[in-house]
Write a structure and sequence with these properties.
Chain A has about 130 residues and is mostly helical. Chain A has one domain. In chain A, helix 2 runs antiparallel to helix 4 and helix 4 runs antiparallel to helix 5. Chain A starts with a helix and ends in a 5-residue tail after the last helix. Chain B has a 4-stranded antiparallel beta sheet with strand order 2-3-1-4. In chain B, a hairpin with a 4-residue loop joins strand 2 and strand 3. In chain B, helix 2 packs across helix 3. Chain B is elongated and about 60 Å long. The mean pLDDT of chain B is about 85. Classes of the chains: A mainly alpha (about 130), B alpha+beta (about 90). The interface between A and B is medium-sized, with 24 and 20 residues.
Amino acid sequence: MEKTLIQAGVNRTTEASTGPESAALAAGGVAALLAGACCVVPFVLVSIGVGGAWLANLQLLEPYRPLFIGVALVALAFAWKRIYMPAQACEPGTACAVPKVRRGYKIGFWMVAALFLVMLTYPYYASLLY
Amino acid sequence: MLRSSLLIAFLALASSAALAEVKTVTLSVPGMYCELCPATVKKAISRVHGVSKVEASFKTKEAVVTYDDSQTNVDALTNATANAGYPSTPRQ
């Protein structure tokens, strides 16, 4: 449930319009969160005062970390390709042709990419936090 | 009679003062399997009122906690780590 709360913040930027870009960004965001679920997520939740013994269950996701990292990478790569190097020109009148939507996609992409980096690299900055 | 009651009063005061002392306990936290886990454990313990110092180690899977005996106890500390997802037990 808490995961969906955090996810809502990511979705809000991407659900403005629906398209493969939004789906890829949402998938990338979820996968990135799952990749860090074991460690970063409990740390953030405890830091903001949300706790519970259920947090121990998140450790079950740790063995699947490489899988989630892979899924997030694929989703981000797909989103990157769609957003920054579209194969076909935008049809006038479709969502991808609207400048505001395109900017939303770019912001969404970099937010998900940043989230992914935070989740991916925690073993390296962890020692700075304690 | 007066002297002995004074003595008793003094002893009672002294012992209650001795009860409220700063203690240190070493908690064994076997669930700290990742690099960030000790940071979470440290955060969780330091939120307990009366805790003055926490050192959590990834290598030894231990947390050394310094706390005020009159404000908190070991049970509250182990509860705090369990609530962060890391059950712990005091090490003797």
